[in-house]
Design brief:
It is built from 6 helices and no strands. The longest helix has 24 residues. The radius of gyration is 16 Å and the shape is globular. It is 61% helix and 0% strand. The protein has one domain: dinb family like domain (Four Helix Bundle (Hemerythrin (Met), subunit A)), CATH 1.20.120.450. The termini are far apart. By secondary structure, the protein is an all-alpha fold.
Length: 162
């Protein structure tokens, strides 16, 4: 895990990057739906805030259990609606940052054996605390990339997600 320090630093910085980025987007663009099946920028922010407790719980399970078993989290499947519930931006940033600080604190306190601990997840062939930490970072940045695309990309070039 030669990149563990970098992953932790990225996780520490994601909330600041997210908030600074979203605050550059005009308010009227944050709730715009670009195409059928697309989330708005505000919905991406809400989603990022709302998944943090689940991610914290996964970290805790890796720290407490020998080989935790997880179930997939698929937005819209277990919920009544397919769109993330709206959360006011400042509240979403605060929730994201509060949970992220707890996640980073736990990850920093984990020893090498815990970082290498594996669990079972039906979506992945291999799943460990290390992979989860890296996945959280990539998930943050995937959503930020998608928000930028929804804001700035011309219609003809907008990625269509199924």
């Amino acid at each position: 895990m030669p990149d563990r320090t970098d992953i932790l630093e990225g996780l520490r910085r994601s909330g600041r990057i997210l908030e600074a980025f979203v605050r550059t987007i005009p308010a009227h663009d944050r709730n715009r739906i670009r195409a059928e099946g697309c989330w708005s920028i505000a919905e991406h922010v809400s989603h990022l805030a709302q998944v943090q407790p689940m991610l914290l719980e996964r970290i805790l399970r890796f720290m407490r259990e020998d080989q935790p078993e997880f179930i997939p989290f698929i937005p819209g499947v277990d919920e009544a609606e397919e769109r993330p519930p709206a959360v006011e931006m400042t509240a979403a940033f605060e929730a994201f940052n509060q949970y992220r600080a707890k996640q980073v604190d736990l990850l920093e306190s984990a020893d090498d054996i815990t970082w290498q601990k594996t669990g079972r997840h039906p979506e992945y062939e291999l799943y460990s605390l290390y992979i989860l930490a890296r996945h959280i970072l990539m998930h943050d940045h995937w959503h930020m990339y998608r928000m930028e695309e929804l804001w700035l990309t011309r219609d003809a070039y907008l990625t269509e997600l199924s």
